[in-house]
Amino acid sequence: MNIVIVGCGKVGTSIAHELNTEGHDIVLVDINGDAVSRLSDSIDAMGVEGNGATYDTLTEAGVQNADLVVAVTAKDEVNLYACLMAKSAGVKHTIARVRNPEYTQDLFRVKDLLGLSMAINPEQTTAIEISQLFRFAGASEVDTLSRGMVELIKVTVPEKSIVANKRISQIDILKNKVRICSVERGSEVYIPNGDFVIQSGDKISIVSKSETAAKFFRKVNVIIGRSRDVILLGGGKVSFYLAQRLIKSGINVKIIEKNPIRCKELAELLPEAVIINGDCMDQDLLLSEGIEHADGVAALMDFDEENILISLYIKGVSKAKIITKVNNTSFDNIVEQLNLECVINPKNISGEYIASYIRAMQNSLGSNVETLYRLNEDRVEALEFNAKSSSKLVGIPISKLNLKDNLQIICINRKGRIILPVGSDSIMTDDLVIVITKHKGLSDLDDILD
Amino acid sequence: MDKKIITYILGWVLIVEAIAMQIGTITSLIYKESNWIYFVIVGAASALVGFVLVKIMRRKNMVLYQKAGFAATALSWILLSLVGCLPFWISGEIPTFIDAFFEIVSGFTTTGSTILENVEGLSHGMLIWRSFSVWLGGMGVIVFLLALIPKLGGSQNIYLMRAESPGPIVGKAVPRMRNYAALLYGIYMGLTALEIILLLCGGMGIFDALNTGFASAGTGGFGVRNNNMAAYSHYSQVVIAIFLVLFGTNFSFYIMLLTKKFKQAFKMEELWLYIGIIAVSTLIISVNISSLYPTAYESFHQGFFYVTSIISTAGFGIDDVNRWPELSKAVIIIITFIGAMAGSTGGGFKVSRILILCKEVRKEFALLVHPRNVRTVKLDGKTVDHNIMRTTSVFLVVYLGIFILSFIIVAFEGKDVLTSFTAVAASINNTGPGLNLVGPAGNYSSFNILSKSVMIFDMIAGRLELYPLLLLFSPSAWKRA
After folding, report:
1. Residue B156 is nearest to which of A42, A46, A47, comparing CB atoms?
2. Which residue blocks in B140-233 are alpha helix, DSSP H?
3. Is there a single domain that holds both residue A322 and residue A255?
4. A225, B81, B167, B428: least CB-packed within 10 angstroms?
5. With the CA atoms of A38, A44, A50 and A55 taken in that order, what torsion angle do they form, in degrees rounded to the nearest 10?
6. DSSP code of A227?
7. Which ipTM was obtained for this model?
8. Minimal Cα–Cα distance from A1 to chain B, Å?
9. What single-letter DSSP state applies at residue A403?
10. From residue A299, how far is each of A237, A254, A328, A343, B91 by CA, in Å?
11. From A54-68, A127-141, B169-183, the region with the lowest mean pLDDT
């Protein structure tokens, strides 16, 4: 597809990289020539210097032939205006980044007027992601699949768990209601079959309905309960959105923020939260605010280094679930070595979010992938396919299918009923089939056959 | 520097050259000449070596950074010439290696200066390979590879394009590098085919039409007749002159026309300056030489043909320019240095650089008058980045430096100043003919090995616009870190 990206900041860069690897034709626009040339030199894309909210610049970027315009400059107003301009040039799909909460509230009023296909708020999407993690405090990654009907939860297998040192086929507590779909051990990721032996310390991702998941975790000694008291370090936009969501689901929220003016704002916006004015890097303050007894802590300050440092400190003094926000992705491998429980990257989340929207768009243009999720640091993909009657798999028991290595059919959504399939089940027409795999670039359900 | 990826690219260059060379085999077979075997031998050997290199050097996720991109391009051109000259040399049609090498470098760099005293003595196979080398060098073999091989050099392959394509500002006009390279070659092939058809319509023989088409498309200037373009009809000369102007035009102009951005296309300042220079030079020369020719139209024809021939840096000739008055010669030397537009198949200093430098000079003058004046330099309505102005100024200095050094070395040989001066100028600007001994009616065979080597260096340096070739001589470029 032809995609024009207006704004070459961090989010724009992340989206451009994501879309470039998926093989789209990309034109980058930014008012800052340096930013454009740096990005367009490093990926295979064309750069246009100029104000992306003007008709001239957009036509220079070839907006007439574009399928999609994504406006992600630092200014909401510019983004919305750029989308309006793109619309007037005949672009069908536009995505704008709108991060100001006041605009986000009113967006539904003007969405049609502006012809906006989607508004993305990186801070809000990050907040949603984090709030899911607090719901399953023992999990290090929570994703919802199949329109929210199934949950994919990543946990670490504790010592002396009853599943440790057992083959997957021997674990009878599962009873076809829970499925282990990937195992991370050290730096390797496995898609296990029935003979795979689980060890303690493995990070396993399981798929199940939410209520069954809770039961399963109780049995395998993973404390998964929802957090009761959460402390947010830093009072930025993510904190605000997160606090809003957490408060709504009955969690006690405490926010620690250095800037007194921001504290006042937060106090006005979030009357139910406890706002503390102080330095998050002050250990005494943290201890006096009861960091040792909190169930959850999220380090959401502006600097990655501070977030990482304070997370490491809290890990030593508290049993809380710790979520660390890291913006800079270039040192991913080093951050991984630090063994932080949960690292969240807002830019990647929004890049991922937009990319999944584009995949769905493409779906209507021919590809069969309904949705695509990236798991385990992008090494594993979960794909949702729509089984068409023409597919070779329809009606054949799964045990008789010659599937590729490192690939599992983990779940079938049959008209809203979730089936975790066993060998005797077979796929029927119009099923939504979720497949987990280490292969990349599968585009049709028939591709899963070897 | 990542030598593996450079070797990988060189492997592909060898394969492409091996295939391109077979045009000589086919022609030889058609004309029942015996030397087709040399093209087959050299082609097979280079294809084999290329294939092995590509096989063993292939890596997943190859990324080429600027330094390696420039080095790969420069080395490709040297390798291309070393292999390309072998059929001439092995077959003995050009007996000495340095002459064969000079001839093919002159072809690939689209210079078109020859060491042959009797062009018609060469076999048909060798002649067409010589002309085809000009065509291949015109748009460039790396650009061809970029169109051919997906993801060559990884996501940063813009640096390969920058190293090979002429001009101060090299960007892409479409999002994908591969599509852009294919688009350039598409336009190039289309224009070449059109020219060949028009020449055939004028009654030129198919062999001459193909050779002339290839040589003028790359703005090279190789002819297959001893009296170069004077051998052809008046109509053919007009067709050639017009196509030289077209090939000397920035190809982004054609892309704009194809994408229906007519307004933007005709607002290109460089285009108008290029046309202006052609018009004024033609006018001066036509008037100046009017006493030499019977009619005013004939002197206009002579003037126009030679101006287009020199400014596009092709270097075709239809008359002996040495007998023209001094003013005309001066104009010819000046437009030799100016050269064609950026992003064309022509050489020279490039019209756009002149434009940028003139604007910069005007800015400096304004600063003398109003020391606190704030101005920006604009080209086609867009502000020219300070970096581009800086590199353009530095380019001028390096260009003059190489020119002066080469001039001195060639002058050691003791030829007259005008010959030495214009020979070096014609080499570094990829024009071909100079004046006096190296005029359109003369050739380069009388120079000694040292002078020829210097001119070979100048030709490649001029075609790649200096930096890629100079980088090879910088020790720090070869360090790993």
Report:
1. A42
2. 141-148, 158-164, 177-201, 206-217
3. yes
4. A225
5. -160
6. P
7. 0.74
8. 11
9. B
10. 13, 12, 15, 10, 76
11. A127-141
Helix/strand number for chain A, H first, E second = 13, 24
The candidate with the shortest Cα–Cα distance to B35, out of B103, B129, B126, is: B126
d(CA A252, CA A231): 8
Residue whose C-alpha is closest to residue B461's, from B402, B374, B377? B402
Whether the CA torsion A197, A198, A201, A207 is positive or negative: it is positive
- Number of domains present in the structure of chain A: 4
CB-based contact A44 B382, cutoff 8 Å: no
Most confident of A434-443, B58-67, B388-397: B388-397
Please state, as a whole number, how many other Cβ atoms lie within 10 Å of the Cβ of residue B271: 18
Q: Look at residue A127 and tell me if it is in a domain.
A: no
Question: Nearest-CA residue of chain B relative to A37?
Answer: B171
Does A438 fall in a domain? Answer: yes
Question: A257: which strand partners?
Answer: A277
How close A59 gets to chain B, by Cα (Å)? 10
Q: Do A310 and A339 lie in a common domain?
A: yes
Inspect the interface and report whether the beta carbons of A46 and B382 lie closer than 8 Å: no
Q: Domain with A171 in it: what CATH number?
A: 3.30.70.1450
A17 and A70 belong to one structural domain: yes
- CB-nearest to B155 from A44, A46, A47 is A44
Say whether both A237 and A210 belong to one domain. no
Chain B residues whose C-beta sits inside 8 Å of any chain A C-beta: 151, 155-159, 171-177, 179, 259, 264, 382, 385
- Residues A89-116: pLDDT tens digits? 888 888 888 888 778 777 777 777 777 8
B156–A41: do the CB atoms touch at under 8 Å?
A: yes
Disruptive mutation site among A17, A46, A48, A51 for chain B (greatest number of B CBs within 10 Å) = A46
Select from A27, A33, A60 the Cβ nearest to the Cβ of B175.
A27
Domain termination residue (choose one: A316, A348, A380)? A348
| Shared domain check, A186 and A114 | no
Residue A111 included in any domain: yes
- Residue A193 sits at the vertex; the CA angle it makes with A221 and A427, to the nearest 5 degrees, is 110
Point out the residue among A26, A41, A49 whose CB comes nearest to the CB of B175: A26
CB pair distance less than 8 Å for A45 and B174: no
Pairwise CB contact (< 8 Å): A25 & B172: no
The nearest CA of chain A is from the CA of B177 a distance in Å of 6
Q: Is B58 left (phi over 0), alpha (psi -120 to 50) or beta?
A: beta
Could you say which DSSP state residue B289 is in? T
Chain A residues within an 8 Å CB radius of B179: 25
Single out the residue in A58, A88, A120 at which a domain terminates: A120
- The CATH number covering residue A294 comes to 3.40.50.720
The residue with greater pLDDT, A279 or A377, is: A279
Query: Which residue range is the domain that position A156 belongs to?
Result: 140-219
Rg (CA), chain A: 23
Q: Give dist(CA B181, CA B187) in Å, integer.
A: 10
Mean pLDDT of A431-436: 85
Name the more confident of A47 and A372.
A47
For residues A300 and A381, membership in a common domain is answered with: no
Q: Quick one: closest CA in B to A43, which residue? A: B155
String of b and e for A35-60 (b: at least 16 CB within 10 Å)? bbbebbbbbbbbbbbbbbbeeebbeb
* A375 and A440 share one domain: yes
Angle subtended at Cα A212 by Cα A211 and Cα A217, rounded to the nearest 5 degrees: 105
Compute the C-alpha angle B458/B464/B467, nearest 5°.
85
Contact B274, B266 (CB under 8 A): no
Cβ contact, residue pair B175, A41, below 8 Å: no
Q: Is residue A69 part of a domain?
A: yes
Tell which residue, A106, A38, A27, has the closest CA to residue A71: A27
